[in-house]
Every structure is written in C-alpha cells, then in structure tokens.
Amino acid sequence: MPIDAHDTAYLDALKQLEKHLGYTFKDRALIARALTHSSHSNETGERNHHLLCNERLEFFGDSVLSLVVSRYLYNHYQNEPEGDLTCMRKDVVCAPALARYARKIGLGNCLLLGIGEDRNGGRNNENILADAFEAVLAALYIDTNYSLDVVADFLLPLVEEDLREYEIKGTDRDYKTPLQQFIQQTEGDHLEYVLVHEEGPDHMKTFEVEARLNSNVIGRGKGRSKRKAEQAAAKDALELFGVK
After folding, report:
1. Can 198 be counted among the known catalytic residues?
2. Which one from 84, 118, 134, 236 is the annotated catalytic residue?
3. Which CATH architecture has domain 174-241?
4. Predicted TM-score (pTM) of this structure
5. Start-end of H helices in 50-175
C-alpha cells in the first residue's frame, strides 16, 4: 500500500534521506513536494493537482544540476575542450546516472506515488527516480536560500565517482560499433558521419560531426579530433534511440 506524508514509514525514510543529503529541511512541505509524483497528486482530486507534484521543482532542478556540474567540470578539467566537457557532463546528468544516484540515497523509499504507479514498480522506475532526484536538488537549493555550494557538497561526491570511471576509460570508449550494430538491424539503412564544422588553430582544432541515418541527423558531437567527434555523435545517437 502506498505511503503518505504522515506515515511513520515515510517520516523514517525522509530522515534517512536527509542524512544522505547532509541537510535537514526547514520547509518540510518543500521536500515533500519534491518527492510527490504526479500520480499521487492526481489522486487528491484537487483542481490544482498539477501544482502539488514535483514537476515544477524537477524543471528547476535540471538547471541547478547542470550549473553545479558545469562549474565543477570547468574548474577541474581546465585542459579539456568544450566537446569533451559536454560528453563528460552528459555521462553524469543523464537519466540512468541520476536514477543510480537516487538509489544510492534511498530516494525510492521516500516517493509519494499513486496506487497504480506504486504497484507497477514506480519506486524503481528510472525516469521517476531521475526526475525526483532533480526535484530534490531544487528543493535543497531553495531551502538553503539558493546556495549552490550546499547542493555541490551533496551532489559532487556522487558525480565524482562517475567522473573517475570516465577518466579511466577516457573519451576513447567505442560508441560507433554499438550504433552500427543497432542500425544494421534494419536492412537498407545507411549510417554516415559528416564533418560539418571545424575551428581553432591547427594545434588546437575542435571538430563538429553529425551522425546521419539515411541523410537524417540522428546525433551531433564535438571533439579535439574527427574520431572523438564521431564517437561523441554516435553516443548522442545511441541516447536518442534509448540504446544503453
């Protein structure tokens, strides 16, 4: 049976979440809203039920997440070009990564879900977890009087773990092969990589490449070499198709 904001189970789960966050909310209604899925608010029957769920906070949290991660990458990877920074950011702010962070802090246990969504495994749903994680970031940002540093203190240890893996694997991970294998499932489809732009002096050029399927653009990528730009474009295309 779904929990609600007055259940002992919910309050206990919320306390555990705050321990992971390293922060106790002053505005309890704010964190409760961040954890409220639309399926739960819809069941209230309230006319303004769309304002009682976490969707607005998720919208705000997406920008907070991007700013905190972008600031970190800009300051800690000062020799990396824009294309590589973009790839790194994509890796740590994508839905699978956010859902993974959410599971680490037990966020699913705190979600307020509708009866049907709860029965259908919503507490472990990747998109629901990722959206709620962003909403929690927004709630944390607001409740701390808009302190990016407090958000960063919680978020960056999670992100840094993924970035260390990125550094070990480097930007040479092969995305072109799995994309090619995916495309080959449909006979007659043609995949190509097209250089559309390059800039900078010869020793510091940045290349931009489009991955095209039957002349339609399915991915874009930038890198210090054409090969890296192609890999970034392939990664972008895989994300478009939902291939992991």
Report:
1. no
2. 134
3. 2-Layer Sandwich (3.30)
4. 0.71
5. 55-76, 82-93, 95-104, 115-119, 126-143, 148-169
pLDDT tens for residues 19-50? 999 999 999 999 999 999 999 888 877 777 77
Catalytic-labelled residue, pool 58, 62, 84, 143: 62
Beta-carbon neighbour count of residue 153 at 10 Å? 16
Q: Where are the domains of the chain?
A: 8-170, 174-241
Dihedral angle over CA of 133, 137, 143, 149, nearest 10: 150
| pLDDT tens string 155-194 | 999 999 888 876 656 555 788 989 999 999 888 899 999 9
Looking at 3.40.50.1820, 1.10.1520.10, 3.50.50.60, 3.30.70.120, the CATH number of the domain 8-170 comes to 1.10.1520.10
Residues forming a β-bridge with 59: none
Rounded distance between C-alpha atoms, residue 191 and residue 82, angstroms: 25
Q: What is the pLDDT of residues 97-137, one digit of tens each?
A: 999 999 999 999 999 999 999 999 999 999 999 999 999 99
Active site residue 172: no
Q: Which residues contact 84 (CB under 8 A, 6 or more apart)?
A: 77, 171, 223, 224, 228
